[in-house]
């Protein structure tokens, strides 16, 4: 199977090739937390680059729950024309463009000033950096139903804006992933305990989203192949969840791995396992794909066309690429010409794993900002410089976010509220 072969999804729509731009968090929203001009320029580069599927970075379903300041929020129609422009840019060269919808749960910085929600009162364990995150509040039944309604609301708005689909983020230690993991979900009600209960939030969200959008609008899931933490969500769990998703109209499952505590998505496990240098999760994905009825995509460290071919030859339908497309956004077109430049960022081997993880993310975001300014990426940037600049920018964006929330009367609200009109 060629990387440039069409993939027809279960809903009957087609992706022009088997290469996906996987989601990376950009933190490039405008003052109203809608897509900015800089974000549009970044996506123009990826649209021109030749990927068959473009997944956006985190689009937040609730302004009170952000993976980071400067994030894009979609919860009402006030900025829908801006989202329409974003969708038009992404789809201009034939790719499908899906919004990645997310809720961070407990993985939200304390200085954002918002109450943190999670399945259970289990704080993040990042050693001396743990205090950067608040101890979360255990969600009520009403909170859970509100989150499902917000996923549905954002998906419906995304379809109105002209996007091709949505991806429900159930990986990387964010809220839906927190419900799936026995380490973070210690509930004793119908949302916790057995895996069938821990998977209920994901399954109910998929069902509700699918019922709210048209049949040709793609609905996908991003799932951890494992948490890579002892006692956490493992590959056996992932296989069982995919079997549950087999019974629903899901168009694609993307497999990744890890969380803030164990950043396996950057090639670093916390449970003693050694991950491959490229296609980190391929071995796990092959096992899971064997029982999946929907197409499976694997993401994590892919940067060579030979590895893309290896992924496809192993029975995986799509290869998801992140960092390599932050360095060379036209990589699919370059590969199509027969070239293989292998864009990569040098590993960061600092003693502090959490700090090294932050630096790795900062280096990638440094590339994204350069692309958004029409400049060439600089993968050789000092990780220390990228981290420092990133921290300064994050501090500025956090202040802007808190002012934005104060102006909307939601500076630190904890009470559930009705969804905005859509």
Structure, explained:
This protein has 422 residues and is of the alpha/beta class. Helix content is 36%, strand content 13%. α2 packs across α3 (141-161).
The DSSP helix count reads 13
Mean pLDDT: 90
Overall SS class? alpha/beta
Share of β-strand residues: 5-15%
Output the radius of gyration: 19 Å
**Would you report the number of β strands?**
13
Uncertain stretches:
264-277, 413-417
- What is the 3D form? globular
Key structural traits:
422 residues; alpha/beta; 8-stranded parallel beta barrel; two-stranded antiparallel ribbon; 13 helices; 13 strands; 36% helix; globular
Nutshell version of this structure?
The protein is of the alpha/beta class. It has helices at 37-49, 80-91, 141-161, 175-180, 195-198, 200-212, 235-245, 282-289, 305-313, 323-327, 331-336, 353-372, 383-407, and strands spanning 7-8, 14-15, 19-21, 53-60, 72-73, 96-102, 117-118, 137-138, 165-170, 218-224, 252-256, 296-299, 318-321.
């Amino acid at each position: 199977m060629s990387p440039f072969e069409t993939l027809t999804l279960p809903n009957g729509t087609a992706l022009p090739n088997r290469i996906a731009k996987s989601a990376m968090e950009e933190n490039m929203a405008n003052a109203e937390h809608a897509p900015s001009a800089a974000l549009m320029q970044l996506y123009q580069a990826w649209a021109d680059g030749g990927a068959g599927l473009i997944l956006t970075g985190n689009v937040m379903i609730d302004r009170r729950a952000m993976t980071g300041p400067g994030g894009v929020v979609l919860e009402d129609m006030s900025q829908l024309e801006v989202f329409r422009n974003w969708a038009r840019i992404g789809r201009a060269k034939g790719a499908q463009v899906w919004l990645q919808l997310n809720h961070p749960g407990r993985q939200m910085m304390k200085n954002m000033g918002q109450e943190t929600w999670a399945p259970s009162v289990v704080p993040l364990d990042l050693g001396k950096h743990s205090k950067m995150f608040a101890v979360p509040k255990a969600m009520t039944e009403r909170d859970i139903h509100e989150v499902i309604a917000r996923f549905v609301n954002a998906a419906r708005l995304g379809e109105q804006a002209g996007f091709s689909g949505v991806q429900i983020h159930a990986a990387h230690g964010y809220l839906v992933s927190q419900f799936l993991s026995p380490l973070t979900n210690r509930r004793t009600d119908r949302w916790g305990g057995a895996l069938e209960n821990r998977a209920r939030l994901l399954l109910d969200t998929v069902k509700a989203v699918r019922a709210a959008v048209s049949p040709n609008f793609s609905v996908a899931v991003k799932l951890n192949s494992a948490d890579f933490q002892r006692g956490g969500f493992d590959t056996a769990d992932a296989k069982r969840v995919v079997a549950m998703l087999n019974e629903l109209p899901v168009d694609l499952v993307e497999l990744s791995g890890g969380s803030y505590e164990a950043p396996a998505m950057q090639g670093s496990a916390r449970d003693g396992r050694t991950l491959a240098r490229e296609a980190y999760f391929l071995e796990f994905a092959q096992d899971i794909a064997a029982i999946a009825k929907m197409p499976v995509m694997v993401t994590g460290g892919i940067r060579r066309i030979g590895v893309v071919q290896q992924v496809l030859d192993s029975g995986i339908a799509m290869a998801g690429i992140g960092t390599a497309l932050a360095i060379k956004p036209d990589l699919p077109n370059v590969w199509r010409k027969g070239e293989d430049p292998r864009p990569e960022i040098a590993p960061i081997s600092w003693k502090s794993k959490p700090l090294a993880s932050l630096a790795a993310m900062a280096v990638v975001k440094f590339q994204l900002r350069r692309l958004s300014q029409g400049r060439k990426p600089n993968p050789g940037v000092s990780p220390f410089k990228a981290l420092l600049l990133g921290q300064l920018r994050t501090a500025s964006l956090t202040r802007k976010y808190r002012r934005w929330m104060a102006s909307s009367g939601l500076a630190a609200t904890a009470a559930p509220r009705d969804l905005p009109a859509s």
